[in-house]
Prior knowledge:
Layout: E1 18-20, E2 23-30, E3 36-40, E4 46-52, E5 60-66, E6 73-74, E7 78-79, E8 87-88, E9 99-101, E10 106-111, E11 116-121, E12 130-137, E13 152-158, E14 171-172, E15 182-193, E16 199-206, E17 215-222, E18 227-237, E19 243-248, E20 254-264
Antiparallel strand pairs: 1-2, 2-12, 3-11, 4-10, 4-12, 5-6, 5-9, 5-11, 7-10, 8-9, 13-20, 14-19, 15-18, 15-20, 16-17, 16-19
Amino acid sequence: MAVASNFPVQIQNQGIVNVRNSERTLRSVLTFQTPYLYFSTTGYSLMTLTINPPVSFYPTVLIEASNDGINYGLIQPISLSSVPSNINAFSPSAGTNYGLLNYGCSSYQIPFPGKFIRISLTTTGANGGTIVNVLLNNGSGISKQSDLQIPNISSWSYVAASGGITNTTAVGLSAAATNISFANILLSLDLVNAGLTDTEVIIRSNATVGGGSPTIIWRTFLKAGTNASYRFTPGIKAVAGRLIEVILSATATVYVNAQGTQIMSQS
Length: 267
């Protein structure tokens, strides 16, 4: 005998989960009343999603990640479209980093996502449902993964100061990471010792520039009158939530140029 039951409308936003063959799929409809989708990516290394807004509705969808379920930060997916990416990468001051401004069904990939993902609908001018389909698996993605391809919050660079570094005081190369779910990565380093003194060049992770809790993450020796260039693959990772700084072991004249990015911390 069949038993009739009422299906709660809003339960659609809890995601329909199907687990088989090391894959997990979720389907949700983001609306004015239920604009958020939360889920865990534990056990998976790749997230692929499609976003399909209703006709004549151009929503901005934000994708955020966290490793503790508390501190979330915006991440930038990789567009799988054959046309230029429709990812809106506004500056942080605009308040809408990496929103996905959709003009039709769009597909994206996020390799090495955070442990927790939050997808939210920020445009509430219409009540049309925006369909979000998520596939979690352990695939390799669209290309070989490296630190350069991990979804990043922002790239950063440090340009050598006029006259170089001439003392043994720490100099910040990057700002602190967004929060403890994110980490700075050093990708390249160019050094010139224009002085007469040999010195060690020490790269550290620290809570504040010159603070009392540094962690040395890289070190080299640079003779007077020499130069060196380094490209790190994978990048040199700082402690999550901290900045990257450089310090000399001796009073010299060293020009430092550095580039890096900020990623979801995997530890």
